[in-house]
């Protein structure tokens, strides 16, 4: 009997084409799947499609086709502990694909057919009436301001270059304020915080060695220095593969934390809200095809 499979595809992804989707569905059919293709038309569709699959099927098999934003949307629609989830990399950054070692659509298909899985642990960010899951990272402070400041027209014209333009504006209008981070009864002062559920950040750069999509808990990067050069040093360490720790930057483990202040907050590359926020780990959200 064919295995039901819901393909949630973002048609605005960089590698999307009707021909590619036809090739993917034909491959899955030949491998014993019964794929149903759902194309997203807005930012909330991926979560809605995933929620519907979880409501209609006892153990849904869902494939997120797009970039990291599509994967984040699907994760936000899942019923915990119910679904098996696979990633089909069609986006531009595809940090998820790099975390999983998926180098192509064909490699992703081979893994889907094989159906070998591991647990997926995610994070939950809550603040100002907003609750949002993330699977890669959540940032509060500098990168939150950068994501918040991305202009739609620039993103459409320059793609990822829009984030660089926003970073330049954020550096020019430098925020010197600090915020308090409470973890396990301890309190720390940070200028920015990145809560890492995965090791990589912004592509192939390893920011938090030891962070894992499969294990509950985070590696938390706290930038204590509030100067521009502190961030330059951090960027150079990460670019040269030395990780984030050092030179006013500490990295520590946490299962939950509270971040004070009113700085901008992003999760998996999307602006969410301003602080204060709480962040907690969500183990065993789904089975992730590896």
TrEMBL record:
Q: Which residues form the DAGKc domain?
A: 1-129
Q: Name one GO molecular function term.
A: ATP binding
**Matching Gene3D superfamilies:** 2.60.200.40, Probable inorganic polyphosphate/atp-NAD kinase, domain 1 (3.40.50.10330)
Pfam families per record: DAGK_cat (PF00781), YegS_C (PF19279)
Q: Which InterPro entries match?
A: ATP-NAD_kinase_N, Diacylglycerol_kinase_cat_dom, Lipid_Phosphate_FormReg, NAD/diacylglycerol_kinase_sf, YegS/DAGK_C
Annotated keywords = ATP-binding, Kinase, Nucleotide-binding, Transferase
Q: This protein's superkingdom? A: Bacteria
GO CC, one annotated term: plasma membrane
The identity of this protein, by name, is Diacylglycerol kinase family lipid kinase
| Species this chain originates from | Geobacter metallireducens
Organism ancestry? Bacteria, Pseudomonadati, Thermodesulfobacteriota, Desulfuromonadia, Geobacterales
């Amino acid at each position: 009997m064919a295995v039901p499979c819901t393909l949630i595809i973002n048609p605005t992804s960089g590698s999307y084409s009707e021909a590619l989707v036809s090739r993917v569905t034909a491959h899955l059919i030949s491998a014993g799947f019964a794929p149903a293709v759902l194309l997203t038309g807005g930012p909330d569709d991926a979560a809605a499609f995933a929620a519907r699959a979880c409501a209609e099927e006892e153990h849904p098999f869902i494939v997120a086709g797009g970039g990291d934003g599509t994967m984040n949307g699907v994760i936000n629609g899942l019923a915990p502990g119910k679904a098996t989830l696979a990633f089909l990399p069609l986006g531009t950054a595809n940090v998820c694909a790099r975390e999983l070692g998926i180098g192509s659509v064909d490699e992703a298909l081979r893994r889907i057919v094989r159906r070998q899985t591991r647990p997926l642990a995610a994070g939950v960010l809550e603040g100002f009436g907003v609750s949002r899951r993330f699977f890669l990272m959540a940032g509060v402070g500098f990168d939150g301001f950068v994501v918040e400041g991305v202009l739609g027209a620039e993103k459409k014209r320059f793609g990822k270059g829009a984030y660089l333009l926003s970073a330049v504006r954020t550096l020019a209008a430098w925020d010197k304020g600090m915020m308090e981070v409470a973890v396990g009864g301890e309190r720390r002062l940070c200028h920015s915080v990145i809560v890492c559920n995965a090791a990589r950040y912004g592509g192939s750069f390893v920011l938090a060695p030891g962070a894992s999509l499969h294990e509950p808990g985070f590696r938390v990067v706290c930038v204590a220095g509030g100067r521009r050069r502190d961030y330059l040093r951090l960027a150079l360490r990460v670019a040269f593969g030395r990780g984030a720790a050092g030179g006013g930057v500490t990295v520590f483990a946490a299962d939950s934390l509270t971040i004070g202040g009113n700085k901008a907050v992003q999760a998996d590359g999307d602006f969410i809200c301003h602080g204060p926020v709480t962040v907690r780990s969500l183990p065993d959200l789904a089975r992730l095809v590896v």
